[in-house]
Please model this.
Amino acid sequence: MNQPSPWNIALAVASALAIIGACSIPPQSQFTTTTPSRNTTDQGSAATEATLSAPPSAATSTIPAATVTSHPVDPRSSLAAGTYLVYWVSGHLRARTLDGSVDQELIPMGNEPYARLSPDGARVAFGSDGQLFIYDLFSGVLTPLHTAGTNSYTPDWSPDGTRLVFAFDSEPPVNSSIYQLDLATGGIVRLTPWDTVERSPAWSPDGHWIAYAADQAVIRSTGGSFLGVTELYLLNAVCISSVASCGGSSQRITFGAPETVADAPAWSPNSRSLAFMCGRAIGEDFEYDICTVGLDGSKFSALMTTPEEELWPVWSPDGAQIGYTRKDPDAPNRDIYVLPFDGGEPVNVTRSADVDEVLAFWLVIP
Model:
């Protein structure tokens, strides 16, 4: 890989496919944000309220009208009870059982392979071409959340399903920040200070924390490429829900060596651990594995250290397995793998011969 950002990797392998339906997009506007701060000790400081102009091409503060798509019937209705891996391939989300006996299309999605299921299992949030969308699985309604070209990406749900956190940058590769969107009001709050590249937010199932990745420095390799040094941080989500009174502080939980990357955090179901991509510089490229870490930075563990490229981990609902995307050194494409925590070997679930597949989330049909 020639780009240290895992999101850039996904964009490079994705097909340039049009997003489903025609969305009515309102004019761009400004919005009011509350700006936090982070000090040099990585522990943060209290936020201060301020009325700011939105960054260039900012998100609209009003959610536009929805558009009915081609799925008026819940696409899960034909799925039997069980556990499914939902993955992106060629602009669609598909649901597959671990044994491969069922592999069914859920929805068309677009050209960015990042999607998250709402806590109630009824909606999918995803991005396409810098715009965020919510797809209602019951009604087949697609709702655009931001104006086109705002560079909003990697959304994740609050545990109660009322808010989204996402990364926003105004002009890549300029600094990006983490924002929170209230789905009922359209109100947007900036959660991180816009002084570096911050991305990949993930809300803990218990609602207490928002994990995200932030670049610490940029270094130049001997070949002239720029390689980031990225670590994981936690935001106190309980605190930011009343940000005017207590502020949103950031706590660093990974401390890698120079030329390392910690990115794409994924919560364990009990909210006690994070799985993430742990990368290290190999010449001008990065080599990624899957690691885990506790909330206080302890119990760091590399689940694997291989020549393969392991990306975007997602914990199973029962906490017994981790699904992820993997590319073998000699393979032309990426497949979906599952690694059990009981000491078993990783299993290739999709075994595709010629297309890239990226794991999005697990789906349980009761």
In short: The radius of gyration is 19 Å. The chain has one domain: 6-365. The chain has a mean pLDDT of 74.
